[in-house]
């Protein structure tokens, strides 16, 4: 490679790491092929010219050759905040996650796995917003006819919803100028290419430049913009990390492809909370918001069945009762199987070890299968106690009584630790008909005094996993 000119260096296009010489792999994020030659930034050159104009003095006015400022600084009390008021989209579950709706000028990034329903969600939202103003939907992955077929199927046809199948950034900007939309949807940002920029569409450089140009237009025109983004095989947003820094809101749309439940989570939100979750039911005629998803993850048994236990998990601020099922049986293999579905396998393995060492339950030569009902994925430590109860119930062939929930984190010493939002979990359990809850001992005093437990549910506090199993399954365990 030719030697760089004086004052220039090399910079990673993904994380910003700088180096004096070119390398094939970034020393910070370890990405290959992202280190590019970069000269001195424009702001730095302007500062150097300003210091030179002052005769080398670091103080005094800056005499640069730049143009006039586009805005005039005003006192913060005189700034009109109504311009940034959220406008509802019409999809209540999406508005819940966004904090009320779309903010004019905000740029959203919606990421999710292929086939999860991202285009369906945005097509429905675009049709609802089009009732109050023009909406431009730019698709780079499908033809306009294909999108129209989906719109007919889900009932998302509107005279104010404009559709364009384009992959060129200049053409997209021309459509924005001609239509003047209230909402812009780009599906997806990885398919749009900018002329004069090196790299293929979807590459690091192209995605960064396209996102920066669309963000600048959104801020200039107070245009709410939604960018659809791809994800990598580990579930993170594909493309440069600067893409998530450029946008105002990052949403993840996920769900098991074998289940109809879909969830929208906010990973970043400059205008609202990041602990809200929107639930949707994906069917033949589109997405239907689920204002009350409780009960979707519970199975109905006429008689109590060994190996089942109900817990209450928090998805954002929303408590959801979920049933955990376990099956323990003698293994004919040298190495017993440990299979999980919807749960963290390493955490389940830890609970198995705690049961063997602290509760005396022999599972070393047993096959262990643990799963959740309804395809929901549980990552909270608060489900540990329900997993332990379900495993012990299956191993001892004893059924958990009806109306019992178990909530708590299990430690390696066998202790049951407190979890956040216990009062909300108990209130939801009471609403769903549960009458007894096994919870950790409240620190600093009784539960009724610290968190205000609901009166319609009996709360039994336990200190360790052995005491919890005895409270649920009796002294026979």
Q: What's the layout of helices and strands?
A:
Blueprint: E1 9-12, E2 18-19, E3 35-38, H1 42-53, H2 92-98, E4 107-112, H3 118-129, E5 135-139, H4 144-154, E6 161-165, H5 169-179, E7 183-187, H6 204-221, E8 224-229, H7 242-246, E9 249-254, E10 261-269, E11 277-283, E12 286-289, E13 308-315, E14 318-330, E15 338-341, H8 345-358, E16 366-372, H9 384-396, E17 404-406, E18 409-410, E19 416-417, H10 422-431, E20 436-440, H11 447-450, E21 458-462, H12 465-473
Outline of this structure?
With 477 residues, the chain is an alpha/beta fold. Helices cover 26% and strands 23% of the residues.
Provide structural commentary.
By secondary structure, the chain is an alpha/beta fold. The protein has twelve helices and 21 strands. The chain has three domains: 9-53, no CATH class; 84-289, 3-Layer(aba) Sandwich (Rossmann fold); 308-473, Ribosomal Protein S5, domain 2 (2-Layer Sandwich). It has helices spanning 42-53, 92-98, 118-129, 144-154, 169-179, 204-221, 242-246, 345-358, 384-396, 422-431, 447-450, 465-473, and strands spanning 9-12, 18-19, 35-38, 107-112, 135-139, 161-165, 183-187, 224-229, 249-254, 261-269, 277-283, 286-289, 308-315, 318-330, 338-341, 366-372, 404-406, 409-410, 416-417, 436-440, 458-462. The strands form five sheets. A nine-stranded mixed sheet has the order 6-5-7-8-4-9-10-11-12, with helices on both faces. Strands 13-14-16-15 form a four-stranded mixed sheet. Helix 8 packs across helix 9 and helix 9 packs across helix 12 (465-473). The longest helix is centred in the middle third of the chain and has 18 residues, at 204-221. It starts with 8 loop residues before the first strand and ends with a helix. Residues 1-7, 40-66 and 443-451 have low confidence and may be disordered.
